[in-house]
Input
Amino acid sequence: MRDQRAERLAQILVRYSTRVGKGDTCVIQSTTNAEPLVQALYEEVLRAGGLPIMALTPEAAAPALYELASDDQLDWIAPTSMWAAEHADVRIAVMADANTHELSQADPRKQARVQKARKPMLETVMRRSAAGEHRWSLTLFPTLAYAADAGMSLARYEDFFYAACLTDDPDPLTAWRRQSDEVRRLTEWIQGREEVHIQAPGTDIRLNVSGRTFVPCYGQHNMPDGEFFTGPHEDGVDGEVSFSFPAAYAGREVAGVRLRFEAGKVVDASAEQGEDYLLETLDTDAGARHLGELGIGTNYGITTATKEILLDEKIGGTAHMAIGASYPETGGTNDSAVHWDMVCDLRQGGSITVDGEQLQRDGRFVV
Output
């Protein structure tokens, strides 16, 4: 029998997050590991009158690409993928890794090459999303791999994840709308301000956000959700930040990352684990050494780091920063094939000050 929480998650994603309607083309993208949730999504899109397009890949496809593909094959973008970026009304993507470390031996130069090749597709999706022409949502399906990374049994991780998605709410279709008031309030408070100053052990960084738009997040694009974010000025970031949790990108994990910025650019970078990969990614293109996003987590229902950024960046009492591409709707203009989020925990001696007024102290909002 299919887990009823997966059924409710599918309803939230289709009916609330992406608002699938009659005649909408909806790409459902995942691996074969997520079949129970994918099937629930397929059925829910049909009930909503949408036109589902299945885009499923086997688990071992990604490592095979980096092991076997020629340069021409790495540069190639499938016409179906480009069509989805240019024309699909909706995309629902479900992460479902059976092995979160399967790309740990992949050549980082090949990974950077693939990222560069897919940059036009990423730009198209971001542009269409900012214009309201493309609705998308990203979630995951609980697997043993995610549970192991989080240090939980699969059953406990399922409980943790589905609760974070509010699937246990008596009316899951309205749950995130009811949760939006606090995120909206904080977004309204910070909008129009000029400088964000973040301090924590190993972190003292200032970000110019003047004229930029802060976007509240309560279930449309990520599930689970809970943050507000913007794109800092590309040349307006100065100081040092130490990221608290391991950060994975394109199947590779780094830990103990420290970045130092001058006039918006990363001028010094180190990591306790995976430093070579970090430096290779920073050299992907000119934009990879600048920030594309500053986000502040608001989901206090997520209390522990899991090594999965979809959840970790939402933890109430944290801030995250992404090197690479900006989201156009924030007013950010940083151009890169990279978008890599990393999280700074502020719950033990951290603070966020905005134009001299304290927004958060020890992970709790004080405004």
